[in-house]
Amino acid sequence: MKTLSGKISMFCLAAGTVLLVLLDQVSKQAAQRLLKGKASIPLIEGVFELQYLENKGSAFGMLQGKRLFFICMAGLMMVLIPYIYSRIPLTKRFLFLRVTAILFLSGAVGNAADRIYHGYVIDFLYFSLINFPIFNVADIYVTGSTFLLIVLILFYYTDEDFEQIQLFPGRGKRTSS
To answer: Is 139 assigned a catalytic role?
Structure first.
C-alpha cells in the first residue's frame, strides 16, 4: 500500500465514505426536523411515504435495545472493511467490489453515528404498499451493497479473481525444497 495508486485508492475509500455518511446524516437531520411528532407525508399515495421513527434495534425490529452490540459491530466493520479494501487489486475489474465496500462501510458508519449520538437510528422512508419496515439512507447503502456483493460473487467474479485478493499476504502456497 506504499504506492501512489494505493494511497489514492484509500483516499477514495475515505472520501467516498465521508460523502455518503454526510448525505445520510443530512437526510436524517431533515427528517427529524420536518417529520418528528407529525403525521406521515405521502409522496406516492398508498405506496411510499415519509414517516419518522426512532429505531433502537435493527431491520424488522430485531435486537431492540442492543445499542452496544451494534456500535461494536460497526467498529469491527470500520477496521475490517478498510483492510479488505486495501487488499483489493487496483484494476478496473475490481471497481465494483471497491464501490461495494464504500457503500457498506458508509451504511455502517451512518447508523453507528446515530446510535452513538442519539441512542437510536432515525428511520423515515416507508413503503406503505407492502408495509415494509421504515428505513433510512444508510440502510439503503447496506442493503444495496449486500445485494451487489451477492450478484458479483454469483455472476461476475471467478475463483481466480478472489485469489488475487490476498487477505493474508505471506500465507500463500508453500513449496518444498
So the answer is: yes
